[in-house]
């Protein structure tokens, strides 16, 4: 028998009331108020969420560039590096910092200046690469953080870290925390949706697994629901041939009764989650086809996002779907765009990557503004780390490669309470070390939670004897108030 069940059978009523004091009263009050004692928020659906304070954002669209974009080729302009072409990175800059096994065996670390031209844009004067002409048009809508850093140097721990706050897999990701904290706005769609875009160039794609959108120790209902980018968006969303909706409904009713019997006998919360997910799947049979049907979008939408938005699975298409999801009440949309791991052929691959995302990101921001959704939707763009200023492999004036670099990288945020036209943080002339206003990924997480109305110190879930947090129970984190409107 389960030890807890054994204990509850043996305990006397007198001991329970003596030890529990006012626990029964509190439990009754909580049930009347539909309150969650862990987060202090009611869970009754639309309009019922109680955050720690009023949040500026009500939903998030997180655009993750898998592999780590090279900051010095996109946003972190370092003109002096032109004088350093093929010269060795000084030891005084590297300072013995960790290297990956892909370049640790190199005899030299030759400087590779960016081959791309830069110009300043907007009132904020942000430097932007020629590869991102559409992004350059909207710099005054964005908040650039050029001083992000992490301890993780390889992809799996690094992407796990920035998604879940821990390098070890198994913890809830940010989307699951947001789902848990804010609850649902649409009874017929998941609270947290994941889309994996197909890059035009596929020279070096990274593995992307469902561990990244896991609920971890949170209730399973808060895990991300992955929408496929070709075929049916959800596997088995349609009934099999010859099975009408009435038969499917009867089948689910029978499954629900069996699962309820199991839940009463065992008490496993995952059984209850399964019941809810079956019901959600049934409701999605009606809501998802309408969601993914872009035929009613006006021509102006495709002029804004680009013609690629018509093609299923492209980044532009997934970003347009993200807007439609948020418009229908989905709280958190995570988009992964692969192939940013430019160990070689930066000249050939980076332009393809930027063409995939540039106009689509511009279109998303303008579309949110036009629809009155911008102020309540937080948009995040970035990777899991940056790239090295020195070249990996062969170096020429026309081409080079770059290794992983966790010590500094650039991300941008927009909407949802973010201060527009902000350029925060500064790196040294090699884009190798931060010299002003460092922002750890824990600070990034704390700031995102703040924008949603949560104090990251109090937003916890009791697990394994600890009040677990997205921002870690051991390390400090701060809200970067300079980024807030």
How do you describe this structure in short?
33% of the residues lie in helices and 16% in strands. The chain is α/β, with parallel strands linked by helices and 485 residues long.
3D architecture notes:
- It is globular and about 75 Å long.
- Strands 3, 6, 7, 8, 9, 10, 13, 14 and 17 form a nine-stranded mixed β-sheet that branches. Strands 1-2 form a two-stranded antiparallel ribbon. Strands 4-5 form a two-stranded antiparallel sheet.
- Mean pLDDT is 88; it is low at 21-48.
- α9 runs antiparallel to α10 (269-292) and α12 (315-327) packs parallel to α13.
- The termini are far apart.
- The protein has a single domain (52-483), classed as Alkaline Phosphatase, subunit A (3-Layer(aba) Sandwich).
- The protein has helices spanning 3-10, 13-20, 23-33, 71-74, 91-94, 133-137, 155-164, 174-182, 245-266, 269-292, 299-305, 315-327, 346-370, 441-451; strands at residues 35-36, 41-42, 59-65, 118-121, 126-129, 142-149, 192-197, 225-227, 332-337, 377-382, 386-391, 402-405, 409-414, 422-424, 426-427, 434-436, 439-440, 461-463, 466-468.
- The protein is of the alpha/beta class.
- 33% of the residues lie in helices and 16% in strands.
- It is built from 14 helices and 19 strands.
